[in-house]
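Our collaborator T.R. sent over the components below with a one-line note: 'Predict the complex.' Nothing else. No constraints on interfaces, no templates requested, no preferences about which chain binds where. So this is a plain run: every listed entity goes in together, and whatever single assembly comes back becomes the starting point for the next discussion.
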Amino acid sequence: MTRLDVRKTHKLYIGGAFPRSESGRTFEAVDAKGGFLGNMALASRKDARDAVLAARKAFGGWSTRTPYNRGQVVYRLAEVMEGRRDQFIEQLRAAEGLNDKKATTYVDAAIDRVVWYAGWADKYVQVLGNGNPVSGPFFNLSTPEPTGVVATVAPSGPLLGLVSVIAPAIVTGNTVVVIASEKYPVPAVTLSECMATSDLPGGVVNILTGKPAEIAPWLASHMDVNALDLAGVDDPELAASLEVAAADNLKRVLRAPSAPVDWLAEPTLARLEGLVETKTVWHPIGV
Amino acid sequence: MTKFEYAPAPESRSIVDIKSSYGLYIGGEFVDGKGGSFKSISPSTEEVLAEVTEATADDVDLAVKAARQAYDKVWSKLPGSERAKYLYRIARIMAERSREFAVLESLDNGKPIKESRDVDLPLVSQWFFYYAGWADKLGHAGLGPDPKALGVAGQVIPWNFPIMMLAWKIAPALAAGNTVVLKPAETTPLTALLFAEVCQQAELPPGVVNIITGAGATGQALVEHPDVDKVAFTGSTAVGKAIARSVAGTSKKVTLELGGKAANIVFDDAPLDQAVEGIVGGIFFNQGHVCCAGSRLLVQESVYDEVIDKLKQRMSTLRLGDPLDKNTDIGAINSAEQLARIKELSDVGDAEGAERWSAPCEIPDSGFWFAPTIFTGVTQAHRIAREEIFGPVLSILTFRTPAEAVEKANNTPYGLSAGVWTEKGSRILSMANQLRAGVVWANTFNKFDPASPFGGYKESGYGREGGRHGLAAYLQGASA
Amino acid sequence: MTGATASLRKTLGGLPGVDQVGLEARAAGLGTRSIKTTAKAWAIDLAISMVDLTTLEGADTPGKVRALANKAMRPDPTDPSCPSAAAVCVYPDMVKIAKDTLGDSGLNVASVATAFPSGRAALDIKLADTRDAVEAGADEIDMVIDRGAFLTGNYELVFDEIVATKEACARPDGTHAHLKVIFETGELQTYDNVRKASWLAMMAGADFIKTSTGKVQPAATLPVTLVMLEAVRDFRAETGRQVGVKPAGGIKTSKDAIKYLVMVNEIVGEDWLDPDWFRFGASSLLNDLLLQRQKIATGHYSGPDYVTLD
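Returned assembly:
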């Protein structure tokens, strides 16, 4: 007698917990051939609101961790992902219909990407900051700081794209509400399980599955969100309307890409730089 | 009658030659516009200074075309070292003609000559000098070996620091290799128009700098022009939001430097006399027409009485009057409209139960004036503690502990600047870390330098002006 | 450390700090005031009336002191409307000469004392020096503090010496010579020290506080005087007692003097715009004031042959 497998309930990841959508709604994730992969929680605007609350709550603690500690925590995430490497490869094959080699390439790149960004935690201030030679008896220093709560529409690259937008945001101390790829949500849920079992504090990353077109406008207009990353928005009209909504409290916006992004390419500092604020401190020099 | 009565010491206005009317500066020459005109007046006397052209959308289009042509054919092909020399030339001319500009600025804007002469104009020249040196060093700006300019920059500047804001905008744009179309504010267009003459004197290639005048509609036409690659705006948060909406879905890069409601925090161990100077300079410099003004004073309760006494005493020595008098500390409010806004919000302060005290000043008969004023008994629940007044009005609140000071300071949608006064070093650093503001002045206030990035968090805008960061705002490869 | 020293340290340590950059910026800002025409004429006359015309040289002789005293009484002998100086300032052994020369002119004789300028002598010698000057007729005593004691934190010693010197200023008739306390701010180095010394001296009974001996550079500066003016202002607010201020040394031009008067006007107010409460310790300043005075009167620039030698 063959053993009946135990299927997984895919849930949202908010504040370090795994709730169902408050709306009770679900949608079906399907594989590359249209076969059933799982019932996903279909996040509502209220789930988005809860996620922002969780992200805001986590911001104070996360942003004031030492850079070394944030680097270690993000690196630890890569360690946990490595342990789930086979699972990710299998999920990418199923979802996107990739062959084994390609799926492996993406999963390895995703893990390596997290490692790459982990290393930036205690360096980006040195690269993006400046001591400023002002013309007077003043100490003058500019340092980048995390902007706050970042709402992100993840690219459809279900794992590499996803970590490539989350990692630069959190490594500087931001907290994130991310809407996973609508088409390939399953790897995002697995990633959230990696996060939950790594040392990442609850609320630093919150992952919603569902429809960006439905949830993103609520995040774009949310007055307690500081930045909006439209990496995964491929509908120009939706992108423009989200930018318009973001103007209500002048969110920093990382615009939707105008051409397809090669997530395998080595990143620049642009994503990291787009989610920090430069603070300049003056102090007189005297006796 | 006081013992030591300072005799009038007016700066001569004969140094500046104001024309009766001005066209638009497009493609290296002054041209007539297709629309009407408006008058620029002196806010201290309401005297008409000149007729200025109201640029239409067609005029804006012409200016953008001139900038595009200059970009394509001349400016983008010049080596950085040559661009640098043009900017050095401008820096030198601005230094040579600084008194002329200072007088014109004080006439058109109403600010005291000692501020236009000792603060604005020196910074203008320095700003050009600083960015001149970047023009041939772009590969060292941290954006790769050969970062490219953006193209045509549309720049809209406010009336509070007209020529200084022009320098903040034009110097980095040109250094990075862009060409510009700049619109000064409708109440203060004259120094920008005089700057057009400086461009001619420097033999800057035609079209590299274009100056168009007009009000909101002209600015909107510029910002929304499809051939503008970069929008830089300094002004109100409301207009900043409108600009952010209007560029949605485009590839235009944007820098916004908007409003503020800065907390100036005084601890009981502060160097009190210097703190009082910082409070006074923080809110009464430039009649409080300063986006980063320290308009919310947070005083630790243990030192409250002493600070208020010293502050009132100090304010009583402020001299309000003729902007051209070298001893004037407080000039005219820039416009009737702004004066009405200041009066309205001050009345709200009264109505909400805050206690008003104004420095004893004689108010001139003509022009727009408002005596330096403080409100005590203000709480976070007062409108005057939340809304930007943009005038010489200080709202005074108290706090008990550092944590309370931080909470109150950050409890605002703005985040441009903040001040901290304490002799304890570790507390300064802790406060500086926790304040959500783009500029933190510790034991000083309202200091500016071309090498120092300036700009806000939250609804105070995005992007930075000044320093390497300000240069990056005009180059490809930067994110924002 | 005695209880008194501990208590003084606590009191002086509790004074607000002085931020050097902010202080100097404020002083420079006041220095940009433009004092013209009638205001300038008034200020120059006031400045002349505040001068403690000074000679403090090893080469001083009765002849030199007589010349100085005559100059103080009639700074511009060609112009009777020109005010006289406030006082002449000399060494103790010259007090009698000065006193005799000034007669009943109303001008004071100020004498430095207490082993001026270093103050490095035993207390009884410093007090004898003081009593000697007072007996010779000095109206004002300019004492120096023990900077060494101050810099080692021995505030009690400095305090006690001021108190003792003040006692030595007493005359048999119950009055006493006015006591000016010199800090030698160039040796105290920091503005925080200047503020502490100001309060220390005032608490000990100083009638005037004075920047410098003129023998150490830098002598009087605008920022140092600003700190002292803030101190006398705050001291009066706290105790009700008004104390005078005397910048001395290095003030050479009318332009400088007017900057000081602007500072007095705006920091402590017109109560101090009076020779009883503000003095300039100077020598060459007087002639520059006179040259400027002549320029205002005649409309053209004057020259050194038209003012008298000291």
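Summary for T.R.: The domain at 3-300 of chain C is CATH 3.20.20.70 (TIM Barrel).
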